[in-house]
Every structure is written in structure tokens, then in C-alpha cells.
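Ticket opened by: R.M.
Priority: normal
Category: complex prediction / small molecule

The reporter submitted a protein together with adenosine-5'-triphosphate and asked that the result be attached to this ticket for the collaborator who will pick it up next week. Submitted input follows.
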Amino acid sequence: MNTLVGTGFLTRLVLRRERVQLTAWLAVIALLAVGTAASFAQLYPTQQGRAEFAASLQGNPVFLALTGPMFDLTTLGGMTAWRVAGIGSLLAAFMAVFTVVRHTRADEENGRLELLGAGVVGRRAPLTAPLLTVFGAGLVLALVVGGALTAKGLPAAGSFALGLGFAGAAWVFGALAAVTAQLSQSARAATGIAAGVVVLTFLMRALGDSTGADWLSWISPIGWTQQVRAFADERWWVLALPLVTTSLLVALAYVLVARRDLGGGLLATRPGPARASASLRGSFGLAWRLHRASLLSWLISVVVLGLVLGALAESVSDVLRTSDQLQRILAALGGSKGVVDLFLAAMLSIVGLVGAVYAVQSTLRARGEESAQRAEPVLTASVGRTRWFGGHLVFAFGGTALLMAVVGAAMGLAHGLRAGDLGGELPRVLAGALVQIPAAWVLAGLAAALTGVLPRAVGLAWAVLVVFFLLGQLGQMLQLSQWLLDVSPFTHVPKLPGGEFTAQPLCWMVAVTVVLTAVGLIGFRRRDLG
Amino acid sequence: MTTAISVSGLRKSFGRARALDGLDLTVTTGEVHGFLGPNGAGKSTTIRVLLGLLRADGGTAELLGGDPWREATQLHRRLAYVPGDVTLWPSLTGGEVIDLLGRLRGGLNQGRRAELLERFELDPTKKGRTYSKGNRQKVALVAALASEAELLILDEPTSGLDPLMEEVFRECVAQERDAGRTVLLSSHILAEVEALCDRVSIIRNGQTVETGTLAELRHLTRTSITAELGAEPTGLAELPGVHDLDVQGTRVKLEVDTAELDAVLRRLTEFGVRGLTSQPPTLEELFLRHYTDEVRA
Ligand SMILES: Nc1ncnc2c1ncn2[C@@H]1O[C@H](COP(=O)(O)OP(=O)(O)OP(=O)(O)O)[C@@H](O)[C@H]1O
Ligand SMILES: [Mg+2]
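Result attached by the on-call engineer:
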């Protein structure tokens, strides 16, 4: 087993470097579960209150899509599991992806792994150490969530079933990231592909749960956490699915790692042009070259996303026609058009978050270039700082707007064709996507401001995005105070189609974005680089 | 003679750590100026201040007659910079990077570009991520040397180059000097400094400890002398500048400050010199003395 020599040492190193971030992730996920349970306990202390709560939600496709299948909403445990299973799994999955890529491909890219590889470290050790870390983190998560919920008085079986569901998501996606880290040569792409699959599996179960296409939920690792049915007659065998999947992915990662060189991908890099083309001129041309590939793959992803969501929107109301009780819900929600609009608006709010992810990622590209010392050659070649930073910001802001327009058009097109009213539906859906732009921009502005003023803390932009996401998902249901909800720009986005359009909040968001960006640009002119 | 770079009393701290502590540096137009000092002395920090990447806490710095912080963009048209650790864009080829940097600076000598690629044996079609350390360095060197810049700022530019390429680099810099360009060369390779530099500045702990031509600096160090005399010598120990005196009968070993060499030799001849070997200070000794904390009595 000499290919594993040094695994223990490397694992300790990973743990050391990740101690703050991993602890933060675990704390957020555990607090999410415990906080939700506590709020529900306070809001719905009686059996009757919970029954009313259940009756008001049962069968509502919007909540099925955003949150998950409702197995038993009459107990505190059942409510909690329903509310947090999806989001908790999503967060656990991202935790795993970021951790694994950071210690595999990213370390390889910046040469840190080479430094270690020269020591006594087996071939498989650098991959094994982050995987062990993530598997361990998953177990700790299961124990913490299970223990904390049990301590709050919920049944132990359900508590630990939910915790293990989260752990399963962390394991599967940690293993998936181990595979994508072998396939692509850049950490950015490895993270991008794995995170894309996370989002995709979340959407798969959203569609499966809301349109009755159960198989979609059953092939989604995020769906598995829900299908364990914590607090609702647990199906323990479902936990075998993440275990088997994880084993297969880990095996695949080991096969791949044995077939490639350190620093290399599976595809050999081909030579390129000896001369720069006419378009590679100026810092803007360079920024375009750097953002091009990423923007293109985002565009393709959101087109697919938009087409699928649009094509399935009509099915949401079909499901509600299947029984008398559901018919009543349908009527209460404003008929089939009302339900479809609600569903579209809910999906578009997720799309807006996806746009914010791109906005933050592409804005932080500038800081990434700076940290990698690739800003220096440009900035010492007669390019002003504002010009250089501005070049990246153009792609951050423009790219975000373009993504939202494209996803809105794709979704509107598919939905319009299916509903047989392309001319009527396309503009409505497109508008619903376009109103997300200013909210996503606020996060790009925040990332720009951090880059200019607090370059060492740019990661805060991601943390804020996670907070906004949680506020949007949980805020209303947990009846958090309005001022807290108001902090998130996404609270102020008009709920289109179907909702009322007001321009004022959008103008405010644009103004905030302008101020934040200006702070960033000015700060960037004044500070030390490096 | 005009000055290309003039720095005085430069100070820069990173948090608590003081990187520059009143550094002085003057580079005359048209000279190749060696910039030396032990690791962490503050060479790169000085260069980064001169490039407008860092903002000094105090002191003055002038570059090509302008303020390196406020007039960075204009000044950068007239200089080219090669860092000691070049990172390239993984997806751009070396040729693309050379062209891009040239265009940003407002021009590249095409003939020179082709010539340099050949002399450095650099394949411009490889992608950034596939270059070796030395080849990454060459990309930056070609981009800088093929530019029309009047000032070259090179921070350990040959780290990673093999001896053959190191030789090519020396020829190129010598050419640049003959063409009238000014070069600030930070380096740890003493042979390179000796071969190329008109003047050197040695810094330590963020301060300039010595500056001058190599001949001037040599003058400040010791020559070691072994002599076989006709008679047993006396009074050598009292002479200024004599160190480590060791007299064994008529055989004498001593070290003497080069500035005092004349007086010591006169004295020795008084006892009749039968044999004499003298060793001038090597460059290594010269630098080691400045690099270590030992202070001359
Ligand atoms: N960004 C920074 N943050 C904190 N400290 C720094 C930073 N940059 C440099 N230093 C410190 O400033 C001092 C001078 O560093 P500098 O890189 O200028 O040394 P150097 O003379 O170039 O050394 P070398 O020969 O190793 O290249 C060192 O003590 C270094 O640790
Ligand atoms: Mg240095």
C-alpha cells in the first residue's frame, strides 16, 4: 500500500488549512437544522396548528419544487426534515466540492502539491487526504445534526437519519469533485463542473417532486436525503444509494489518477498560435480571453436549464387536476395559470441566485488574477488599474445580464410553445428573468468593493450570498423579522410573472451596485497590489 | 549625466514587519546597476514600489523623472519589467503573451522578437501551463528585451535559466547597455553581476549598506598576504588595517584592508621580502561580508 504513504500527514495538513472553513460550513448546516426546528416549535406548538400548516401546503407544486416532497407535515420532525433536507444537502455538497478541489487540483495548479510530492508521499495520498477529510466532515455533520435535533426533543431515529442524509450528500459530491479534479486541468473548471452537477441534481428533484416524474427525484443525490423520509417512517436502505455511488466515484477517481501525470489532465494540451491574434490587444482583449470559456459554458448550462424549466412548467398544474382535494388547492392558488406563474416565479428566483453565483465568480476573477501574480505583468505594461479592473467588471456585469436574458428567453420559449401562447408568455417569463439582474449585480458590486478595500476577505462575498440564499429560502416560513429579510436584495425583486412590477426597488439596487463598485474601483487604485 | 532612478530614505512596512527602512538608490541613465542583498533584504519590495505596485510609507522615489505611484501608466510605457517568478496565463501561448505585453506597452520590435526567440531557443506555441520554469522566465525576458523600453527592471531574471541560456542573457544585456538602455538588475548570481554591472548597490534589512563600482567596493575589503621575510618582522600589529596577524619566525600571514595595502607592503620590504603571495578579495568574500551582520572594527 505504498501509494498511500503520507496520507495521515497530508490529512492533518488539510484539516489544519480547512479548520476555519469546515467548522463554519458545519456550523451553518447544523444551525440551519436546529434553528428551523426551534422556530417551528415556537410557531406551531399545537397539533392543530401543524395540521393547518400541513393542509395549507400539501400538494402545492411551488413548495414541492423549492423544498421537497411532503411526507409528514404534522410533526415537528417531519416539518423540519421537509424544510431543510434539500438546502442542507445542497450546502453539504458545496462544502465537499470546494474542499476537495482546493486540496487536489488547485494545489496541483499552484505547485503546492509538487512541493509535497517530493517528500515521502504516495501517489494516491494527495487524493485520499481531502477525501478522508470530507468523509470525516460528513460523519461529524451527521453526529452534530443528529445529536442536536435529538437534544431538542425530536425522535433520535429521524434526527440521525436526516444527519446521515446530509453526510451522504457530502460524500457523493466530495467523490464527484475528486473525479472532476482529475478530468480538468484548472481548479476553476473542476469546481465549476462539480458545482454545476450539484445545482443540476437539485433541479432534477425539484422537477421530479413537483411534476410527478418521480424517477427524477430518485436519481438525484439531493433527492436521496429527502427520500430517507426522516421522522416519517424512515427508509434506512435509501442511505445505501449515496454509499454505493460514493464508492464507485472514488474508484473512478483512483483509476484516473493512476493514468495521468502530476499537473496534467487526461487530455494533452495542444500547442497554440505563435502570434497573438488581432483581438488579443489591450487589457480588455485579455479579459475577454480569460472570461470567454467560462461565460460560454455558463451560457450553455443556463440555456438547458431554461428550456427544461420552461418545458415542464405546464405539468405543474396537470398534477393538481388529478384529485378533488388538489383541485381545490388549484383553485385557491388562482387556477392553473396562477399556479404555473407561481412556479415560474419561484424557479426564476433560483435562476437569479444562479446569476449571482456567476456575478460573484466573475468579479472575483480579478482578485484571482492578482493573487496568482498575473495582474503584475499587465499593470506594469502601461495599463491603468481602473482600466484593468474595469475590464473584468464589464464581463461580470455584462455577463450576468446576458445570462439572465438568455435563460429568460429559453425558459419563455419552451414554456410559451408548450402553453401554445409564445407571443404572450415569452415576454412575461423574460421579464421575470430580467428583474433578477439588479439583485445579482448587488453581489457583483459587493465582490468588487471587497476586492478594492478588503482584498484578503473577498471570500465574504460568497458567505453573504449563502446568507441571502438562506434568508430567501427560510425567512418567510420561519417568520424572521422583516428588516432582516430586507437586507437581501432578492427579497425586493418583483415576483414575476404573476406578481406586481415595481421599478423602485430595482433602481435602488442599481444605485447600491454603483456605489459598491465605485468604492471597489477607488479602493483598488489606492492600495498595494499583491 | 541624468538619473533614471533616484530613491532616498524610502520606507515601507507590511503590518509590523519593516521591509524598507530608509533605503537609498541612484541609477544613472545608461548604466547597468546591480542590486544586491541577502534574501528578504527588500530588493523586490523596492522594485515593486518603483513599479507603482506598492505605495511607499515615506521617503522619495523618482523614476524616469516622474512619480512612480501617480504617473505609473505613463512611465510604464518607457520601461519593461521581468519578475523572478513568472506566472503565465494557462491558456495563452508564450507567443501570445509576448505580443500582448508588447501591444500593451505600445510596440514591439518584430525583428528583435524573432531573433530573441531563436537565441533563447523558446517555442512560442506552447501553452502557459506547459512551460517549464526556465521557459516561463524566457517568455518574460523576450517580451522585455524586444520592447523599445528605455529602462529595464529585472528582478532575478535568470532564476531557472540553464548556464547556456544564462550566457545568452548576459550577451543580450550587454547589447542593451551598448544600445544605451538603463538596466536595474537584482541578482544573487555574482558572476553575472561582475560581468554586467557598472555599479552596484548592496542592501541589507531595508537599508543601503554600500554603493559604488566593483573596483571601489573591492577597495573596501581585505587582501590576504603570505610573505617569507629576511628577518623576523616587528611593528606589524601596530599598523592600521592589519588583521589576523600570524608570525612564525620569518614567515608572516596577515589580512589587510585593501585601502591600507600600500603601507603594509612598505613595512614588509623593510625586512627583505624573499617570497610573497597575495590574494585579492573574491567577489564572494566581498558580498558575504556585507550580507552578514559582522561589522568591521
Ligand atoms: N506582501 C508582503 N506582506 C508582508 N511582508 C512582505 C510582503 N512582501 C515582502 N514582505 C517582507 O518584506 C521583506 C523584504 O522582502 P523582499 O521580497 O523585498 O526581499 P528580497 O530582497 O527581494 O529577497 P529575495 O532575495 O529573497 O528575493 C521580507 O522580510 C518579506 O518577508
Ligand atoms: Mg526578491
